[in-house]
Design a protein that fits this description.
Aminoglycoside 3'-phosphotransferase, Chain: A, domain 2; alpha+beta; three-stranded antiparallel beta sheet; 256 residues
């Protein structure tokens, strides 16, 4: 059964209790990361089961619904935003001890411009979270790559706290959601301010990445550009930048 909903990954199907996905040159490195997460007890990711006769990777199927579609209401409350922050923090704690395979290849679309030995999911946002009861799981790991926690956290703060220009949040509401994310991720107000300052750069980098891959003729990214995603990310970047002063003031007035 085909699985739909992704903007970039195609050819993903469910077979019984497994998911079959096309592979890329980064697949073996991603599998090493997923096996590490399994070994250290991080339960919020699929497990690797190998490859099928068609050469597709086999992962465990995670039942549930999409956080960005069927369960979007969970992010309307600060409790939901705090839970997202906790998921981000627990993942990065689990990844700290990961040692990449020698000569590992990673997909470079979400690559942090600052060299780092730590790892990121690469697209840690509501559309890659599956909700099953009280449990949240992360899917679509093809974008995993080296990067700083703050680089990933800035992307996740923006997407989970819904800080875009179309949400009609007051500054007070936005600050409450930013604080909730920071509380869930166990960030000091100083670290949370660092993450918030990176949001404009991180969102702008997403627009630039889509533009670059579309220019290279990648059909999925060409479609994203045609659908207006580049403009949406750039508007988001400009909007957050315009609200940084009051939002940072609100973060700095919060308790550590």
């Amino acid at each position: 059964m085909p699985l739909v909903g992704g903007n970039v990954s195609g050819g993903v199907v469910r077979v019984g209790a497994t998911v079959r996905r096309p592979v890329g040159e980064w697949t073996s490195a991603v599998h090493a990361l997923l096996r590490h997460l399994d070994a250290v007890g991080f339960v919020g990711a699929p497990r690797v089961l190998g490859f099928d006769e068609e050469g597709r990777e086999i992962l465990t199927y995670i039942p549930g619904v999409s956080l960005s579609i069927e369960a979007a209401h969970l992010l309307e409350s600060t409790d939901g935003v705090a839970k997202a922050g906790a998921l981000v923090a627990s993942l990065h704690t689990a990844m700290r001890s990961f040692v990449p395979p020698e000569h590992a290849s990673w997909w470079t679309g979400s690559l942090d411009p600052v060299p780092s030995l730590s790892m990121t999911h690469g697209d840690l946002a509501p559309w890659n979270v599956i909700v099953d009861g009280d449990d949240w799981y992360l899917i679509d790991w093809d974008s995993a790559c080296p990067g700083r926690f703050v680089w990933e956290a800035a992307y996740s703060l923006h997407t989970f706290a819904m800080l875009g220009p179309d949400t009609a949040l007051s500054d007070a509401d936005a600050i409450a959601r930013i604080r909730a994310f920071g509380d869930g991720a166990r960030l000091s107000k100083t670290k949370l301010a660092d993450v918030l300052r990176l949001v404009p750069s991180r969102t702008r980098a997403t627009a630039d990445m889509i533009d670059t891959f579309a220019d290279q003729g990648h059909p999925a990214f060409t479609a994203l550009r045609d659908e207006g995603h580049i403009q949406a990310w750039r508007r988001a970047s400009e909007y957050v930048e315009s609200r940084l002063v009051p939002w940072l003031d609100g973060v700095n007035r919060s308790a550590s």
